Amino acid sequence: MRIVVAFFILLCSISLLEAQTGAAVGDWVSLKATTMVGPQTIEVKQRHAIVGEEKDAEGKLLWWFETQIDMGGQQILTKLLVPASAFGETEVSSAQFNKSARRWITKMGDQPAVELPVEEAMKQFQGMMGLAEDPNAKVTELGEEEIETPKGKMKCTKKGYQGKASMEQAQGPIVMTITNTYDRTIWRTAAVPIVGMAKVEEKGLVEVSTQVPMPGTPPPQPQETHSLTVVEDFGQGAKSAITEEPAAVPAPAPVPAPGK
Questions:
Q1: Nearest 10 degrees: CA dihedral of 227, 159, 95, 165?
Q2: Helix or strand or coil: residue 249?
Q3: What digits encode the pLDDT tens for the residues 238-253?
Q4: Using CA atoms, how far apart are residues 55 and 113, in angstroms rounded to an integer?
Q5: What gap in Å lies between CA 119 and CA 69, rounded to an integer?
Q6: Among 1, 15, 45, 206, which residue is least crowded by beta carbons within 10 Å?
Q7: What is the helix (H) or strand (E) element at residue 127, kind and residue range?
């Protein structure tokens, strides 16, 4: 169950986004996600913001994109330096968006902020992203719909995504395969900055399997899930929540080739 819950904390923060061409430094948007996993209800608040800019050696404009995830007072922050042009893409997955990162900073709760090597951060991120996004998902155009949100009424374009994705996670010597079969609906609108969506609803089934039984542990039961994410507010004037200079985490040493 702990693994399933951890997955949904992540899933609430990485739904498909539609980066807006009208985005600007200082833009922010907050969303609230409520997820039911079996008998448990998980509430997650998230905030996305563009908190700064700089240029690379070639003069290309880069933006600092920051995400805050809060679950019951436990906070996770990530801050990525990405090309500003990434916000001109349409309907790009978070995995594709994050691949463009030049720098990657993270902060867990009250712990000091750290800067991870981008390649190492992406290795960890891509494994988890595999569970949330099926590149071969069936996409259905569902027309337009006006919906009510805490920010008011919004006219949206509605799309459905049906897919199945999986990832592997090691628990000591045992490797578990976690599979997520989902039916996701997204209400998209250019009125919401950065993420371009007003609402996401998903129903799914999460299954965990192993090639060999886990000693002393009964096989995990499939868990039905239902999550709802709604925009709460947005505006301008965002500042970074990470105020200290991050400590650099060195890249892992390369593994020597056999016989050397």
A1: 60
A2: coil
A3: 999 999 999 987 755 5
A4: 23
A5: 22
A6: 1
A7: helix 118-129
